[in-house]
Amino acid sequence: MFSVTSSQNPFYAIRFTSLMKVRTTLKKGITVPSLLFIIGVCLLSAVFPQLANDTLNTVKNFIFVNLNWVYVWSVTIFVIFLVYIMAGKYGNIRLGSNDSRPEYSFFSWLSMLFAAGMGIGLMYFSVAEPMQHYSGGIFAGKSPVGRAQSAQLYTFFHWGIHAWAIYGVVGLALAYFSYRYRLPLSLRSCFYPLLKDKIKGKWGDVIDIFALCSTFFGITTTLGFGVVQITSGLVMLHVLPESSFLYQVIIVGVLVSLAILSAVSGLDKGVRVLSNVNIIAVVILLLFVLFAGPTVYLIGSFTEGIGTYINSFFTLTFNTHVYEENAQSWFYDWTILYWAWWISWSPYVGLFIARISKGRTIREFVAAVLVLPTLFNFIWMSVFGNSAIWFDMHEARGYLSKMANDPDGLMFEFLGYLPLTEFISFFVVAIILIFFVTSADSGIFVMNSIATKNAKVSPKWQTIGWGVLLAVLALLLLNAGGLAALQSMTLITALPFSVIMLLFLVSLTKALMIDRDYYEKDFSSTTIPWSGEHWKERLKRMASFNDRASTEAYIGTTVKEAFEELVKEFSANEINAGIKEGKESHSLEIEIRYDRINNFIYGVTCESKPVAEYLLSEENLPGSEKEMVYFPKSYFGDGRPGYDVKLFTRNELISDVLKHYERFIGIISEDKNGMFVSSDANHRFR
Fold this sequence. Notes:
With 686 residues, the protein is mainly alpha-helical. It has helices spanning 2-8, 10-22, 28-47, 49-66, 68-87, 106-117, 120-125, 128-135, 144-159, 161-179, 192-195, 202-236, 245-265, 267-292, 295-311, 313-318, 325-355, 362-370, 372-394, 399-402, 407-415, 421-451, 460-480, 483-492, 494-520, 535-542, 548-572, 613-616, 650-668, 674-677, 679-683, and strands at 577-581, 587-592, 600-610, 628-636. Strand 2 and strand 3 form a beta hairpin.
């Protein structure tokens, strides 16, 4: 029907062509290879689950045994790097332009960060991991108290700063290059200082394909295991008669539908609201278990656990158990598996954290990502894990220890020793459901972002499509028993990505050095604008506050005359300059236009600031009858902070413009600054 209409009427042909162009934002070079690999691996895992699992498990075990040092050193370097830049000279650099501010409140930001970073795993392992450490493994020869202390220490280690440092490295690199350099929110952008324009080609596509596949595998396996725990809980609560595949299909269908609805609503609505609700529910549950359980024991064990963790930090970080043959297998199955798991999840979590972190300073970002979630994890694991251990020692008579290898039902068995068991169990199921939805909706959002190179607006069918694919493949693998194989595949991808993350650090270090040098480059000694001439006029201006009218008059006369004289002289020297009203009201700016680099801009605008109350009545200081003072403030095209220029005469203002122009010429002549001054570099990816 369209072909007939378009052949008869050119207008309909144009409309049809436009519809064909905008109906999808997916990039074929990323999406097609990724889907082929994802579907191929999932089908192999579903059709030949045992063969796939054995093969991938063999590869995983080889990596864990022979290359575990790569994970140990990588994670250690991530922690050291983030602590260094948080405490050092780069901490004040903002993730965005110098005047950008955060898009989300601190609470909403932290809620979304936490929901994406830990999700269902927090509910799944909060009782299971401490109980497994306590009931067996390398701690079996210790006393019950010693086993309890070791269980808490290693749970802290696996869920603490090291895990969040992995997420922080990817999130920081993505946020910095996306918002500071105006590059796409894509892993390929993190290589810009190293690869430059090559990130637009095949190398960039390979990086994004890797990120998309890793994200999909990680979310699929997590959702699959999450459904098993939800079903187990509902069976124990007698909501479902059995844990059959039919009920799992129904649960996945309902929850993924909610996740799609949340993702379609966008970050500002669905994802943010669900994350806020989730963190509030989690805190309520935490407080209930704290006060309904062995409160004094929990507070004391948490306090002691923090001290033990701090004292053992470096030993834990570098310990490979190479001198303890009996501990080697445990080390591979726990610590190395965790580092691989966090690394494999970092493209997804890092992308999501970066997306919500625009406007934060590097110091604020790193401090929040490393410290706050870590502290919450420690409190959470102490309350749930230590409560379970205490009940096992005093009331359960070892029953919870016997269930340690059944993490799906262990949480609900543990809740049986608390008051209001049935109500709290339903509440826990509700939290797991919300975690399921928040993990899925943020995952859908991230996958679509990768596949579209961070397109701002995408058709809703794309969001729905990612959700449906997640649900179908998760259920396929769950039914066929292929989730374990996919989990092994996910862990294998962590090895190459750990190397990629180390390159992120090299790239980020190079960019931060250039960034700091660019904004702190000083003026030459010959450009000081004031020689002492016209000092009486300068003193008169110092001794008075300006109102709006006088400030606007200054801009309309002195500034305008200085700019006009400069433009005339620039033109005489064949420099293309012009004057125009700035973006701000009551402002003028002189602009020198270029084709390949950012234009040079020097502007002056009318700014205001409140007068301190004590100045209103101070006799020996220039007084003001008004609470606001107005002044002309300079601003620049590259976003550097301006300053008050009210004391400048026309010639001094001309001198000030020229000193910035001299600085500009000096900067653009250095090849290393091309990332900052090139307009092509800043805008070519939009």
